[in-house]
Amino acid sequence: MPEKMANTVRLFERAGGEFYSVHGDDARFVARQIYKTNSVLKYLGGDQATGLPSCTMSRMVAETFLREALLVQQLRVEIWVSDAKRSQTSSLAGSAAWRLGPKASPGNLQELEDILFANSDMTVAPLVASIQLTVAGNQPMLGVAFADATQRYLGLTEFMDNDLYSNLESLLIQLGIRECLLPIAEASKNYDLQKVQAVLTRCNIVATECRRGDFQTKNVDQDFNRLLEDETPFTMRPEHDLKIALGAAACLLKYLALLTDETNFGRFRLFQHELSQYMRLDASALRALNLMPSQQLGAHKTMSLFGLLNHCKTSQGARLLNQWIKQPLLQLDPIRERQTLVQVFVDDPEMLRVLQEDHLRTMPDLNRLAKKFQSGRAQLQDVVRVYQCVVKLPGLSTVLGSMANEAELLGKWYLGPLEQNAEHLGKLQELVETMIDLSRVDQHEYHIKPDFDPTLADLQGQMQAAMDQIVAEQRRVSEQLHMEMDKKLKLEKSTLFGYCLRLTRTEASCLRNKRSQYIELSVQKGGVLFTTAALKALNQDYRAASDEYQKVQSTLVKEVLGIVGTYCTVFETVNGTVAHLDVILSLAYAAIQAPIPYIRPTMTDSGVLRLVEARHPCLEVQDEVAFIPNDVAFARGQTEFQIITGPNMAGKSTFIRQTGVIVLMAQIGSFVPCSEAEVGLVDCILARVGAGDNQLKGISTFMAEMLETAAILKTATDRSLVIVDELGRGTSTHDGFGLAWAISEYILDQIQCLCLFATHFHELTALADQYPKVHNLHVMAHVNQGHGSGGDGKREITLLYKVKPGVCDQSFGIHVAELANFPPSVVSLARRKADELEDFASHAATESGHPHLPPEKSTLPYTSDDERQGRVVIEQFMQEFGAIPNIATMDAAQTQAAVQAHYQKYATDIQGNAYVRHVLQTFGPAN
Distance (Å, rounded) from C-alpha 456 to C-alpha 495? Predict the structure, then answer.
């Protein structure tokens, strides 16, 4: 068996798919993720230490795991099947020849599509992209091809990028790419490919390796001619000029194996994506604004903007909403059209309810059904699902047509497309009602009408005659056993025995000593199954007629499926119309159901951003949260750059994030959580928020800050919105402040965009003295001096969460430590040291003539080299001390003796390092 790729889980099919087994690390992973315990593990060939960990999953559990692995965990999945005769037992032992069966990855779900979405909706599109990179004169040029094999469309784009690949990052986020093809093996020799890989990692996209030879374009023209539904020769299309993207397309087509399935021929749509047609977002903004659900946000749907706005009743609507959030618009007219449509349903809540509950709730995903018909995997049940959708559409059109407000706009987006396809759909409805027995659908039985074909009618007559005799036999047995028919003696259809009789286990005692008349079939928890010689013969007659009926019907079913398959283009058009309506209704519902209803923002191209009583849409709906609204006011040339200071936990981050979220909501056409709002269009939202380390990816806090900030400085334009939170935390105070000041000046002088800059460097507010465009804000807090012994009583801090003009003139870190119940001795020492540093800072600032500089490192009695070397000494000391045998169980005297002995070992290093001496002096004498 070949070595598996990274992030791949292998399942082994057992008993013809009745259950599956997993082994090794995969078994441990399944035990943790699905069963939440290791007790399900068995160890083949040995014990826990020497055996192979293994566990099994039923078909239902395996389907749940596959959805979790592919759609949430972003893993690849392989299902291996045995060529040998499959065992019907649950034993995992024994050898067999295995071959690779269905496989799937986050961007290519084709082979497992029916399993994954048999009982659940596909709310996220599985997009996969291929990237071809060329560099000429230090200028990267990228060609990108992407595809959704489920929805059957392909896209191409080419663009130049900077050395941080910011354009690529924006593209991947806009499209919602889940997997990307790259010649990874070349990355060790190609620094630019390493940068591209870093972008994929930041965007949480799976990287799949391909060979450089896969990018050859020798047959790509021919391949497109076979796949595209448009009959225009590919060489005549404008996309043919995208030579670099065509290489990426060649690789993509090979990976998806689209040419190996003839049902794909003539079915794909192709378009050229323009990066500049939508607002650009970077990965940091996606996370900072909590736009999409994530494992970090937890299971509560309202913790993300998508979860909050997603009141869609159809899976196609949820997919489109996901796309809208990642692709905010940049043109006023389309935004205002969406707003007007939302306004129509906000003004008529009852019509909104009727459309959502009575018309859209049961609407199937017509795109997925269309693909089943095109690929030959559809069944009669799928025809009925299409029919159930078709019969609802006239009612939907009637409801929409009855709305007087904005009738022209409703006609353009909904009534027009529905009416254009009404004639085609009417013919389909007539076909289904003529050929399919709809009276049996409620029993989940799907059959061609018997009277549609003379042979079927004759066989139906035979089946009915046999059924009548079966019921007569039930009545005879009921009278003979004195058991009331259908209440005590029941007729059942078993998959194993066909039609048979059932009594409860208690009542089955009447069958004793009558074995010559009654044949016991099975004893089950629900009762005893039995039959008679006559019932057995009748059952065989019924089964023979039924089998022949299915054989004759299968030919007719094939004809029906072929005819319905010709309507796939109509299905896709209707599906797009339904999805658009579903999203508009969802946005209207979110606006109405908010704790305080959302309002329609005024959209302009003036660069003004004015939000009155703005609220964070996700936070205001959380339990036990009384959200404090705040105003936001940006004006070009006056308040472009806003610095926000204030205590930790006071709401600085919430304030700047909610501004970004509201701007994005406005540009997707949504109403916003404000009492008034005027939003000038921005071309991108870029964020540097949070100081979390990324050590698993080998990136420190400071490096992450610098990478994200560099991307902002290279990407932002004068029409952008930049959000910065606590820049400079990951390095020394002096260096951090210097960088924050320099970056702020660059944004003010060179970029001149709207910027919200939350900082703990109060000295940064002095920028307002040099730049009229800088506006200082602070988050209010009230501190009461407590009364305690020695004049060092505990202080009380009240966070008011209100943003006001002006500067916060003090830091509240120690007060927050008090709120967190730090030991009084620690708080006291922290306050004393803070006072000392303030004295040092004041003296240093006076001497240097720079009153806004924060404390310098030179005020401390050690150098940076002393600190670096001293930290190594302390770490080694603590590691060796912690490794002393039985240290945790020693009494005080023994511990003190151990400390002194260990100290002597390091005495020279300790006394020779100024940093270590300073640390020891802070906590008292070393001995």
Answer: 23
Q: How many residues does the chain have?
A: 927
Residues 6 or more apart whose Cβ sits within 8 Å of residue 243: 143, 217
Which among 356, 298, 401, 325 is positioned nearest to 593, based on CA atoms?
356
Q: In what order do the strands lie in the sheet with 641-645?
A: 280-281, 684-688, 721-725, 754-758, 641-645, 774-784, 796-805
Where does 566-638 have alpha helices with state H? 568-593
For the stretch 433-490, pLDDT in tens is 999 989 888 878 788 888 888 999 999 899 999 999 999 999 999 998 888 888 889 9
pLDDT in tens, 654-689: 999 999 999 999 999 999 999 999 999 999 999 988
Bridge partner list, 139: 136
**Cα separation of 308 and 325, whole Å?**
12
The whole-number average pLDDT for the span 309-327 is: 96
Who's near 584: CB < 8 A, 6+ residues apart? 338, 341, 342, 345
Residue 856 has pLDDT above 50, yes or no: no
User: What band does 297 get if pLDDT is binned at 50, 70 and 90?
Assistant: low
Q: DSSP alpha helices (H): ranges in 262-304?
A: 283-288
Which DSSP string do the residues of 754-787 spell out, in sequence order?
EEEEE-S-GGGGGHHHH-TTEEEEEEEEEEE---
**Residue 751 CB neighbours (<10 A):** 20
Closest C-alpha among 799, 761, 764, 803 to residue 657:
803
Q: Tokens for 713?
A: 């400085």
At 87 the pLDDT is 44
552, amino acid identity: V
- Arithmetic mean of pLDDT, 301-312: 93
CB 654 within 8 A of CB 616: yes
CA pair distance 165, 173, nearest whole angstrom = 13
Question: Contact at 8 Å (CB) between 336 and 603?
Answer: yes
Quick: pLDDT tens for 599-618: 999 999 988 999 999 999 99
Q: Residue 795 carries which DSSP code? A: P
Q: What are phi and psi of 32, to 5 degrees?
A: -75, -45
Rg of the chain over all Cα atoms, to the nearest angstrom: 35
Cβ-based neighbours of 484, under 8 Å, separated by 6 or more: 478
